[in-house]
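Predict the 3D structure for this chain.
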Amino acid sequence: MFKVSKKGSLAAICAMMIVVGMGATAYAAPIYLDEAPVPVTYDNRNVIDVDENGQWGVVIPTAISFSQDVKEVEVEVEVVGINGYTLADFESLEVTAKVTSANGYVLNNSSAATGAEYELTLDDKTFEGDGAAAFEKVLGVGDGLEAKATGEAMIKSEPSEKGQYADILTFEFSGVSEL
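Done. Predicted structure below.
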């Protein structure tokens, strides 16, 4: 038979206790399973955090682009909750939205004699021509307010020469919210 020294026996017994102890611990340890869904989103809209509070913002078009084939473009201005907030979180939210054209709703090119006229229609109100009134509306939550203004931009005349023509629409917002 095999002869085992006292030192070897002690080492073997310790090793067995460690192995058995690990198995017993793993077997006896409770296992808790839980899950927490985390939404992953991508939003390529142009969202402006008007008062930089991280609770609500206004979505405006990233661009309005006309071409030979595209004569009408949908336009929306919408109040939204941001950073996990939704409009349902607000008791009241009033945002005054104002849109103005730098060139009087004319797409200009510095080398062309005349530009291309277009119009902007939001909530069935059409804005066109030099001196046109600005679109202005209170959007939001509560007291019959709507969160979105919808419409379209439509080219009315072709440019006089080939080239790139541009105008700038300025969107201005001010608001008051109460969670």
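The mean pLDDT is 83.
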